[in-house]
Amino acid sequence: MIDMYRNVKVIIHGGAGSALQDRGGLEAVRQDLHRMVDQIYQRAQAGAKAMDCVVYGCQLLEDAPRFNAGYGSVLQSDGQVRMSAALMDGQAQRLSGVINVSRVAHPIDLAAHLQSSDDRVLSDVGSMELARELGLPLFDPITDLRLREWMQERANHFQRSMAGVVAEAADPHARRGTIGVVVRDENGHLAVGTSTGGKGLERIGRVSDSAMPAGTYANGHAAVSCTGIGEDIIDECLAARLVIRISDGMAPEVALAKSFAEATANQRDFGAIGLTQGGDILWGKTSDVLLAAYHTGTTLGDTLDQPQGTQTGRISA
């Protein structure tokens, strides 16, 4: 008898960036990612649809102040938090999202509501109006640590171009990054979600890749979520490029190797995670570290100990 539940696959990420030198901080990140990927897997194994599992997983990560999404998001140049999120249903090939929304706990909830809307991607004013229509309570996502980080940068006249989204600091909870979740459910359906507080210290009105097909994309063949420098992801149109190459018949490992070789030649700084309809688990990075964890259906694993520099990986179904 075939065990249908072994079809369930999950991979999540919590950002990409500079290497984490503090082993205690690295192990804390690993524990968080393993716990959450297992929670998402258990929900999918119980029969939940891929889309519902992705929303649930993004909510878990948005609630974790370690990561740059939802509670704990980085502050922009004016000291405000503006978050973006996207959700894509691979079966329907439908993207929805919000850009630069404020004062909500879970931007992914707005993206999920917009899946059934005629207007599926809303910017700041439209996003906030939708939050009011849905009766979502006001929520302050700013942590003391992120506020102190912004005040220090202000005192230094904002010499850095972005916040430490995966930062070294005395407090291990400062290590954070954009989050993403990809799920293949027991029926073989794919879904992906990405949520972010942006790169931090950016110009007001800057738009990240997360709510674009460049950073979040899925169809019936593959699903990909990206993390890292948003402008680099946009320039490579990374998520859509990977999904389309796999959809056109390129072997997943070849699509990964080709896309990340191109990115390295173009001096990009990012990472990506993905799944195929056949159940392959995929990841790649040009950054020092990719904070990702996965559940194969039998084992938990992660990418935290991978060598610095460009790396790609595939775990076949």
Compact description:
The chain is an alpha+beta fold. Helices cover 30% and strands 24% of the residues. The strands form 2 sheets. The chain has an 8-stranded mixed beta sheet. It has a 5-stranded antiparallel beta sheet with strand order 7-8-9-10-13.
Structural overview:
This protein starts with 8 loop residues before the first strand and ends with a strand. Mean pLDDT is 91; it is low at 1-5 and 165-176. It has 317 residues and is of the alpha+beta class. The relative contact order is 0.19. It has eight helices and 13 strands. The chain is globular. Helix 2 (50-62) runs antiparallel to helix 3 (107-113) and helix 7 runs antiparallel to helix 8 (252-265). The strands form two sheets. An eight-stranded mixed beta sheet has the order 4-3-2-6-5-1-11-12. Strands 7-8-9-10-13 form a five-stranded antiparallel beta sheet. The protein has one domain (7-199, 206-306): (Glycosyl)asparaginase (Glutamine Phosphoribosylpyrophosphate, subunit 1, domain 1), CATH 3.60.20. Strand 2 and strand 3 form a beta hairpin.
